[in-house]
């Protein structure tokens, strides 16, 4: 169960993220954690992999491959503007359009700190190529980022293992529950929020989807704002 602190705010808006971020003030956000569309026709993947999507919220919004470079630049420029000088950003991405995201990031004043890998064990079987079993997590910051290396497991050997550049993304089993087409586990997101923000900080997710970021923020005592174009997702996952 999500423990919501009522003195904090958790806003999920049915709005294009670029327009939505334009409503946020310069340097008003402490942390961005987001999982943007991958530009791989994700709205049609169930047709190729024979997935049961009876419990999936309809209306997933994908980005066309030919638009991905401009799309990435537009939202990342807004992200740079709204981030505080002590702020950080984590972007979860597949490999297909990763170069467009990296090109956009390198065109800004943001700086790269880590390129993490999220390894998962639920890759789709392939016969003529290697099985994809990881996501990329890009950790970029502004001038003097906040990072609490002792946020979890302080003073123990587990702190070292917890911060390795290869992270494990465990499959989330919630049979019978309504879900988004792409969903990161709340417990996975919480780790990054703990390390890169303080209680009461403002966390932004431009591509909120199932609002895992908002739910993680709620459990950790942070404020959160998210945007998503899919009205069905916003209605289903508001907290």
Could you explain the architecture of this structure?
By secondary structure, the chain is an alpha/beta fold. The protein has a single domain (10-237), classed as 3-Layer(aba) Sandwich (Rossmann fold), CATH 3.40.50. The chain is 28% helix and 22% strand. It contains eight helices and eight strands; from the N terminus they run βαβααβαββαβαβαβα. The chain has helices at 17-21, 45-49, 68-82, 98-106, 157-162, 186-196, 212-220, 231-237; strands spanning 10-14, 29-34, 83-93, 111-119, 134-141, 166-168, 202-205, 223-228. Strands 1-8-7-2-3-5-4-6 form an eight-stranded mixed β-sheet, sandwiched between helices. Helix 7 (212-220) links the parallel strand 7 (202-205) and strand 8 (223-228). Helix 3 (68-82) crosses helix 4 (98-106) and helix 6 (186-196) packs across helix 7 (212-220). The longest helix is centred in the first third of the chain and has 15 residues, at 68-82. The relative contact order is 0.24. Residues 43-50 have low confidence and may be disordered.
> Count of helical segments?
8
The parts where pLDDT drops under 50 for at least 5 residues are 43-50
Name the shape in a single word.
globular
Q: Major beta sheet, specifics?
A: 8 strands, mixed
The tally of structural domains comes to 1
Quickly list its features.
239 residues, alpha/beta, Rossmann fold, eight-stranded mixed β-sheet, 8 strands, globular
Structure at a glance:
The chain has 239 residues and is of the alpha/beta class.
Question: What is the topology?
Answer:
Blueprint: E1 10-14, H1 17-21, E2 29-34, H2 45-49, H3 68-82, E3 83-93, H4 98-106, E4 111-119, E5 134-141, H5 157-162, E6 166-168, H6 186-196, E7 202-205, H7 212-220, E8 223-228, H8 231-237
Parallel strand pairs: 1-8, 2-3, 2-7, 4-6, 7-8
Antiparallel strand pairs: 3-5, 4-5
Helix pairs in contact: 3-4, 6-7
